[in-house]
Amino acid sequence: MPDLALEVIGVRGPVRHAAARAAVLGPLVPGYGSLPVGKALARVRRYWQVRAVQLYTAGWSKVVAAAADPKLALWYLRNCPPVGVLVRQLTRRCTQPRVCPFCWGREVALAGFSFLENLCYGPPVPHPRQSPPPVELVAFSTRRRLGLAAGASADRWVAAVRASARPGGVIRALVEDRAVRRAEVAALGAAAAFVTHRLSFAPAGRQLWVDRCGLALVPRPAAGYRDRVLAALGPAAPRPADVKVRALGRPSRRNLFDATRWALYYPRGMMFHPPGPAVALLDGLAEARVRLTARYGPRSQKLLFQQIGEDTRLCDPEDVSPSDD
Ligand SMILES: [Zn+2]
Fold it and tell me: 39 C-alpha to center of ligand 1: Å?
């Protein structure tokens, strides 16, 4: 079945969509800002179409073992709709955000931006509140590097990655353990946060990166965020250079854009680096009940204001946004 010739008929205007596009295009298309949006996304789509076939060839069980028809499963992957634009054709999302750049854009970057935007401004309709609560927007990223001794074969490396993504493995523990997963949020004293984990690996070296990254709203801004995060991670802490925390001041859509692009960007290695470790990660985590993202904090702007002791009469009474975890 030939691929769909998806025709972009409009660029989604709100900042949240621009942030989602930037989180994907930044790592994949250098200098994308000088290209028309449709052209930059078309390039990502070509990369993804090639990658989907590589992962299938490398034995990705999601596709190879698809009950109905592996070729059809591959076709849906290759024709996942681009993020942040309107296309004329109707096509189904592939729902593989760990690796599909467009699903990452929607389920991580757009979801993270929107969660905090709704808490800061209320829902987009009918009456957006213009003044966010008196909190500080903080973005963070902590990286664990997992390696294999030099000289070990590529096959051994792939087997080690697969084992560490399965129950009892170190990757599984880092992404699945609830207390570990929210350690940075607790250390920052955040009132609300959106957290994800990003798995990537080096192009040739036998090194894997497990990043935990997110956006947080902190009601009592203070200096020393990074030291607090480092201390909270304790003996399992990454090396200090791999703990990054950025305080961006009072939230605005502008700095939510910056924070999203900085913290929630697509893992480039999943697209371009050897397919073996990517398949090992995807297969290893396939049966895990691990959500890629977690939301912490109140469910609405009104509840957020109540939590931080501010006047809730300024909030829209219908202000409720979805939340979990
Ligand atoms: Zn997709």
Answer: 18
Domain that holds residue 230: 105-314
Clarify whether residues 148 and 253 are in a common domain. Answer: yes
- Tracing tokens 């590589």 back to the chain, one arrives at 54
Q: Give residue 180 CA to ligand 1 midpoint distance, Å.
A: 28
Strand partners, 297: none
Distance between Cα 282 and ligand 1 center (Å)? 14
> For 260, left (φ over 0), alpha (ψ -120 to 50), or beta?
alpha
Residue 137 carries which DSSP code?
Answer: E
pLDDT in tens, 240-260: 899 999 999 999 999 999 999
| Count of alpha carbons within 13 angstroms of residue 28, beta-carbon side | 29
pTM of model > 0.85: yes
19-34 confidence digits (pLDDT tens) = 999 999 999 999 999 9
| Same domain for 88 and 117 | no
Q: How far is the CA of 93 from the centre of ligand 1 (A)?
A: 5
**CA 41–ligand 1 middle distance (angstroms):** 13
325 in a domain, yes or no? no
Q: How far is the CA of 94 from the centre of ligand 1 (A)?
A: 4
pLDDT digits (tens, 9 = 90+) for 45-89: 999 999 999 999 999 998 888 778 888 899 999 999 999 988 888
| Distance of alpha carbon 219 from alpha carbon 216, whole angstroms | 10
**Ligand 1 centroid – CA 113 distance (Å):** 19
The secondary structure element, H or E, covering residue 171 is: helix 170-176
Give dist(CA 109, CA 277) in Å, integer: 24
CA 285 to ligand 1 center in whole angstroms: 17
